[in-house]
């Protein structure tokens, strides 16, 4: 498949995990990529992963903090300057934050998680949607979470932010569908990414792999998801194959969220 031939796709949080997996998938399908992350080394590693499957891919790396609106304006400007347009946007960058019950959850920590996971998504929508509206087309995928559909114990900031992402997705989809723009969200569950590994290590640094085995037992499939499985879903939603899917939040969690 060459669904992204001639298309420009921006991916935030591209330095690892879901962002990297989506970038590799889009590159396989000849997309032109603007990769955004605060971790410059991670971006270079993602570019290397892309070169292994698509040696001639057009790739622009932009180091940015999505919680700073000026940085968001810059990565959008750089993408348009390089490729002339933005056809797809994976609004993905996020952090988990520390785990504590609500009464012990630090106010500064709460603000930090909200700034990255919710304000960063809002800034991305604000500036990318202007470009897409002016060009009369585009597709956006926001990264929500099963934590944006139901509660997640000891993660007040993360759950609040991801519920907010769901709201932003549906609200902006209502506003921008008339301009030929689709806006959807993916809601990953237990996907084995560096962020999830870090979460398990917060619970038990010495035996985190065993914690992980227990963590997936409520899942009907009894395993972690792979970043590549999310990347393939994101690529589908950004492609023309998903032309009439809009304002939808799609769980990709092995069926776990439907057990509650």
In short:
With 260 residues, the protein is of the alpha/beta class. The chain has helices at residues 17-28, 40-53, 69-83, 107-135, 156-176, 194-203, 208-215, 227-238, and strands at residues 8-12, 32-37, 59-63, 88-91, 138-143, 181-188, 249-252. The chain has two domains: 8-189 and 229-250, NAD(P)-binding Rossmann-like Domain (Rossmann fold, 3-Layer(aba) Sandwich), CATH 3.40.50; 192-224, no CATH class.
Describe this protein's structure.
There is one protein chain. By secondary structure, the protein is an alpha/beta fold. The protein folds into two domains: 8-189 and 229-250, Rossmann fold (3-Layer(aba) Sandwich), CATH 3.40.50.720; 192-224, no CATH class. The protein is built from eight helices and seven strands. It has a seven-stranded parallel β-sheet with strand order 3-2-1-4-5-6-7, with helices on both faces. Helix 3 (69-83) packs parallel to helix 4.
| Order of secondary-structure elements | EHEHEHEHEHEHHHE
**Rough shape?**
globular
- Work out the helicity level: 40-55%
Query: What would you give as the CATH superfamily of the largest domain?
Result: NAD(P)-binding Rossmann-like Domain
Features of this protein?
single chain; 260 residues; alpha/beta; Rossmann fold; 7-stranded parallel sheet; 8 helices
SSE diagram, text form:
Blueprint: E1 8-12, H1 17-28, E2 32-37, H2 40-53, E3 59-63, H3 69-83, E4 88-91, H4 107-135, E5 138-143, H5 156-176, E6 181-188, H6 194-203, H7 208-215, H8 227-238, E7 249-252
Parallel strand pairs: 1-2, 1-4, 2-3, 4-5, 5-6, 6-7
